[in-house]
Design a protein that fits this description.
Shape: elongated
Distance between the termini: 53 Å
Number of helices: 12
Largest sheet: 7 strands, mixed
Oligomer: single chain
Amino acid sequence: MKNITNRVFYVGVNDRNKSLFEGLWPLPAGVSYNSYIIKDEKICLIDTVEVDFFTQFIENIREVIGEKPIDYLVVNHMEPDHSGSIALLKKYYPEITIIGNKKTFGMMHGYYGIDDGTMEVKNGDQLSLGESALSFVLTPMVHWPETMMTLLNDEKTPNSSILFAGDAFGCFGALNGGVIDEEINCDDYWKEMVRYYSNIVGKYGTPVQNALKKLAGVKLDYICSTHGPVWHEHIEKVIDMYNSMSLYEAGEGLVICYGTMYGNTERMAEVIAEAACKAGVKNIALYNVSKTHHSYILRDIFRYRGLIVGAPTYNAGLYHEMDILLSEIANHDVKNRLFGWFGSFSWAGKAVQKIGEWNENHLHFDVVADPVEMKQALTPEVREQCEALGKAMAERLLAK
C-alpha cells in the first residue's frame, strides 16, 4: 500500500514493456499510469489506467479499500492510457458515479458506450466527500479538449490542497519503488519531463498558461500527475518549468541537426558547431536526424534558443528526415528561436531553398545569418561560410 497522505493512496501501475508512447515517442525507462484513491466518508477514485493492466489495478484498489464500494470516479482525462479501464471498472462497481465535464462524456460514449451513472461538473464546482471536498478546474487543451484538474481540500489541512493534474506536470519513466519525489532520486526525471512536455503538450502553450492562471494563489501540498512521480518537495521547480516551457523560453544553447548521406553535410555541421563553441557557446547539441529519434531533438529545441538545421538535396527536394523534423517543429508551434540553416547538393540544389521556405511560411524564426550552400564537398570557401554562420549564431545567443 502506497500512502501519499493518510487519506490519499497511490493505486497506479508501471509499464516497462511498451517501446513507444502513443506509438511515437521512445520509452527507454518505461512509463507509469497513475491513479489515486481518496478514502473519506465517500470513496473516490481519480482516473484509471490502461486496460492491459486492469488485473493489477484492481488488486491495488482492493489493497486500499478491501471490499468497500467506490462511490465516485473522477475522469480528468479521456486518453485511453487513463480511461481504458472505465468499462471494466463499472462491471466491478456498477453503482459508481463517474464525474467529468460535458466533453468528457461525449468521448466516453464514443470510446466505451457509457452514458449512465454520470455526474457533469463545470469549472469551479465542488463535491463533498465528508471531511474533504473536491473542486474542479477545467483546463481545455492541456492537451485534449476535455482535460480538467481536481483539487482536494481537507478540513484537517485547510490551508493547502492536493492537485490531481491529469497529464499536466507529468513525465516519462516508470516509478522504481517509490512514488513521492522526496523518497526517490529525481535526476533522471527532469529531462524526461522536458521531453514529455515538448513531445506531448508543447503545442499548447497558451492553454497551459491559462491553466496556471487558474491555479495561481492555490497553495499546493502535492501535485499528483497521471505520469511520473508525485511532486511534493519539488513543486515550485515543476511549476516554474511548466511556466517557462509554455512561454517558449529557452536557455543559451544551440541545437544543430543535420541529414547526411555520405558525410559531406555532416562535415558542415561539425564546422559550424566548432565555430559556435570557439565563439563562447558551451551548450551545443549536435544530432543526425536519421539516427537520433526526433523526440530527443524536439526536447532540446525546447531547452535551447538557437537552432541550426542542414540537409542535402534529395530527389529535387529536401532530405526526407529533415522535412519531417521541420514539420514536427512547426506542428509543435515552437516560438522565439534564433535560426540558421545550410544545405548541400551534387548537381541541382534545392535543400537550402526548401528550408528557407519552411521558415518563411511556417516557423517564422529570427534568422541570424545567410544560409550556406555546398556543392558536392567542403571547400575552403564553404568552410569559411560555415564558420561565419556558427559565429553569428553565437554572437546572437550571447548578446546581452
